[in-house]
Structures are given as structure tokens and as C-alpha cells.
Model the fold of this input.
Amino acid sequence: NAGVTQTPKFRILKIGQSMTLQCTQDMNHNYMYWYRQDPGMGLKLIYYSVGAGITDKGEVPNGYNVSRSTTEDFPLRLELAAPSQTSVYFCASSYRTPGQGKNIQYFGAGTRLSVL
Amino acid sequence: DAKTTQPPSMDCAEGRAANLPCNHSTISGNEYVYWYRQIHSQGPQYIIHGLKNNETNEMASLIITEDRKSSTLILPHATLRDTAVYYCIVRVGTGNQFYFGTGTSLTVIP
Done:
């Protein structure tokens, strides 16, 4: 199993450009997440999905969009890149049974994005 | 909403036990406490989780107080490779968001 795979690993964008961060998992997990981590800070949730076709906002969703057309893939879209979106982005997935509290997340290696 | 409080940094001598505390006084009765670590800005790595009872796995032990307001992660014999930022996290509210905080930066000293 590859686990959670994120591409690209690094990217530099100009202000106003758009891009999609890719995330795929091969563990048949139903839940997937996108986090961002600014220098010296903890992770903040951008968006999450509890299954194909279902997405919901996290703590910091502004400036981002997501889709979940398959169980495996959960891309994150930046439409008009701004310097404030310079960060490290982590995708995670977990398997959660409805009604069960346990939720162990497995993370990808991250995408380091700079907007200049 | 449940949040966590951890000391910003700790040192530990190589080969000694590292005890990392976490306060989660607002945790609800049926919520788990999870511990992750992050090495050199890599993706966070799951370590262990617990609800009420103490837990142990191949990586660490987790001690949860009886009132569940705090917990301690124990790395029994710290190595240089255990130098990392350790996060104690809990679920926020009843949704699917987890509070990560800024964690504890553990430095294992030779």
C-alpha cells in the first residue's frame, strides 16, 4: 500500500494563478481531509469529505474548493492564489464507522506551496 | 469546544523515558485522545490513541487520568530519531474537525 500520496511536492505560484493539489489514497478510507500548516503552527482544517460526493468546510475554507468524485481522490483547488496561501498542505484519510468515535488519520508527505 | 494545551518544548536525554503531558480538560466523555508526531515538517505520523484506559503499543504508552482531563505520552527509551513535534489532539465539537494546537517540540539529546 502506498497510503496517502500527494502531488506535487513543491510548487511556486504567481499571485492570481490557479492550481490543483492532488491527493489519492489506496486504503479504501471513507474520510479524507485537507489541512494547511503555516510556519511554527499546528494544522488547520480546510475541507473534509465523509465519502464520495460529500464535502464540507473546515476551519479555513476561504480561497479553496474541493471535490470528491471517487473514494480514492480528493483534489484541492486554489482558484486565485494569494500570498496568504503560502503554506504546507497536508492531505489525510481515515476509516470511520458511523457511530464509532475512533478516527485515526493517515497523512501524506505534504505539498509546499509558495505564492509570490 | 474541546482544545488541548501542551508545553511548547522539552528536552530528554537519549535512552531515558520522555514524558510528554497534555491538558484536555474540556474533552467530552466519549471522545478519544490521539497522539501524533511530525518530524522535520513531514506529514504527521499516528502514534497512539486512548479513551479511558491506559494504552501501550510498539511505539509508546499513553496514560490518561481518571477524570480524563489530561494525559501523558511516554516514549520509554528515547532515541535521537524521536526528536520531533508531538501533537495531542481531540475532536472539536460533534463534527469531524480535530484541534491540533502547536504541539510540544521534543529534542532528544545525545
Notes: The interface with chain B takes residues 4, 31, 33, 35, 37, 40-45, 48, 50, 56, 58-59, 88, 90, 92, 101-110 of chain A (CB under 8 Å).
